[in-house]
Design goal:
The protein is an alpha/beta fold. The chain has 14 helices and 19 strands. It has 2 domains: 227 residues, Trna Endonuclease, Chain: A, domain 1 (3-Layer(aba) Sandwich), CATH 3.40.1350; 231 residues, no CATH class. It is elongated, with a radius of gyration of 30 Å.
């Protein structure tokens, strides 16, 4: 979403900014075990954001209704709170119903808060009974055994409008909190201070991303927003302060699987997921006509006009797409790549010392091979599926080798960027040597590796000749793109 100044915040922006501020509170010391619920139907009218303290703190659950108003010519009053207008229930009736509905599920009680940029109307009888220095609670005189005449008049109005007796009214009123007059500017100042303390990006861009994170939680119907969810959202949306090197990096979003968490802050976007859907397969012609030329054009453009030689590649993508991106911005073009690998970032670099990270197995060999087949599996053994593909498509006679982790197939067989670079050096170096020594007519590369490693393999692939890539569709391999090599 676009950035907004306080003067251009809309009502829903204000609501989600307040929610983001509440979520940032989970990062403060002592709040590590607390969590939120955001816009969940079971929380009735006060569902905008619900703050649930850790049970060990024995504190009430806070249900917050957030209302942002553009027109400042009005304010809250007893009359406006109890008047249903065109609605079936007034705002105060909705909050009373919420209190009675949620209280049984709150072992340490419930608080019902109204948060708004509107203030109290001047000389309002109910507003005069609110203690602004005590969290917006009603003053003690409201609950006195013999209340004064002004209090008695207000309570009579409330029992009549809410249709509850005095005892139930007192219980409800003790739960109420009125945080009114909380202007957009004051909300922004609070959020700016919180984000600075968390070392997050500030300003309009940072606040807009915070609002986008809240909307992402709502869209996904996240049942529980805890400290980790806040950190994950900030990481996925790029909110944490970047190092000088990262700030100078050109950011690329590459998606063949849809990833809404990326946001919109990218220098280049490759939103290819419509061409894949939920499949691992896209027709060879699509790769040749659309995807390879688009990536090649992007590399030429960046090389020609951008002084930035560091690229951050974010997103979720098929392995062939990763290898294509790595090849487009390969090491001989002078770029350094920072590639998303789940929650980590793997960075390419030149290796001074090259160690064998994989074992090499000879699967099949002929005296005069016309095809060189290379499989590389990290999480699983690709050999059965590769062999089945070669047999079905008459690829042979052939020289078929497979690379596997020294310690066996595992999701943890490649640990970090340095280990991944060792793998890329070994696989690509051996591919180049075998092609030259065997004078193979065509090279076929089958991968079952982490996505960042696929980028690294493409990144090292120079002077290898054309290489046919493949994608596994959960049952068999299918041809994808050809890297010029």
């Amino acid at each position: 979403m676009g950035t907004r100044s306080s003067s251009r915040l809309k009502g829903d922006d204000y609501q989600h900014l307040v929610t983001w501020s509440t979520a940032l509170g989970l990062l403060e010391p002592g709040n590590e075990l607390d969590h939120l619920r955001v816009e969940q139907v079971d929380d009735c009218a006060a569902d905008d954001v619900v703050y649930v303290p850790d049970a060990g703190r024995r504190q009430p659950t806070s249900f917050r209704q957030v209302k942002g108003h553009v027109d400042y010519r009005r304010g809250y009053s007893l009359a406006s709170l109890v008047d249903p207008g065109e609605q079936k229930q007034s705002l105060l009736q909705k909050l009373a119903h919420t209190f009675e509905s949620v209280s049984p599920s709150c072992p340490f009680g419930a608080e019902i808060a109204l948060v708004s940029n509107w203030p109290w109307a001047n000389d309002d009888p109910l507003g005069s009974l609110i203690d602004a220095f005590d969290g917006g609670r009603l003053k003690a005189e409201v609950f006195a055994k013999s209340p004064g005449s002004r209090v008695a008049k207000v309570k009579r109005e409330l029992t009549s409008r809410l249709q509850i007796d005095d005892a139930r009214l007192d219980v409800f009123l003790r739960s109420l909190r009125f945080n009114l007059g909380h202007s957009p500017n004051s909300a922004i100042q609070v959020v700016e201070a919180q984000m600075a303390a968390a070392k997050m990006m500030g300003g309009e861009a940072g606040r807009s991303l915070g609002i986008a994170i809240v909307r992402d939680w709502i869209k996904k119907k996240l049942p529980k927003v805890d400290r980790q969810a806040v950190l994950d959202g900030a990481t996925q949306f790029g909110l944490f302060d970047k190092s000088p090197e990262d700030r100078s990096a050109l950011e690329i979003h590459l998606q063949t699987y849809k990833d809404d968490a990326l946001g919109n802050r990218a220098d280049l976007r490759f939103d290819w997921y419509p061409l894949f859907g939920n499949s691992s397969y896209s027709d060879e012609g699509v790769w040749e006509r659309e995807l390879v030329p688009e990536m090649t054009d992007a590399q030429l453009l960046v090389s020609a006009v951008s002084p930035r030689r560091t690229i951050r590649i974010l997103g979720r993508f098929h392995l062939s797409a990763g290898a294509l991106a790595g090849y487009a911005f390969r090491h001989t073009t002078g770029f350094t790549l920072h590639v998303q690998q789940r929650e980590e970032t793997w960075t390419t670099r030149e290796l001074v010392e090259q160690r064998a990270a994989l074992s090499e197995e000879l699967v099949a060999q002929c005296e005069k091979p016309t095809h060189l087949v290379i499989g590389c599996g990290i999480m699983q053994n690709p050999t059965p599926a590769v062999t089945a593909y070669c047999n079905a498509h008459g690829i042979g006679p052939r020289h078929h080798v497979n690379f596997r982790p020294l310690a066996g197939y595992s999701h943890k067989a490649v640990v970090g960027a340095d280990n991944a670079m060792e793998v890329a050096y070994q696989v690509v170096g051996r591919l180049r040597d075998l092609r030259q020594s065997l004078q193979a007519e065509k090279v076929h590369l089958f991968l079952a590796v982490p996505q960042a490693l696929a980028v690294f393999i493409g990144y090292r692939m120079n002077k290898c000749g054309p290489v046919q890539m493949y994608e596994f569709d959960s049952q068999r391999y299918r041809p994808s793109c050809i890297l010029p090599g």
